[in-house]
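Design a sequence for this backbone.
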């Protein structure tokens, strides 16, 4: 996520502690937070997909996607 968007999330948070956010500001905050969380989830998923488990016997196995 771009630094200016993260800065805006923080700015909106600070505003919310000082006063009530307007409807537009609340929507902007919600959308920015959703975008931020989606990016974190994507990065975490990519990390897990590139993780290999190494067992004590020396064998290794890539993590598999668990079906629901």
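Sequence:
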């Amino acid at each position: 996520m771009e630094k200016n968007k993260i800065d805006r999330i923080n700015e909106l948070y600070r505003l919310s502690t000082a006063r009530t956010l307007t409807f537009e500001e609340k929507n902007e905050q919600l959308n920015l937070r959703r975008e931020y969380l989606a990016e974190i989830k994507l990065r975490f998923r990519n990390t897990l997909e590139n993780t290999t488990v190494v067992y004590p016997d020396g064998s290794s196995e890539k993590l598999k996607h668990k079906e629901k």
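The chain has a mean pLDDT of 93.
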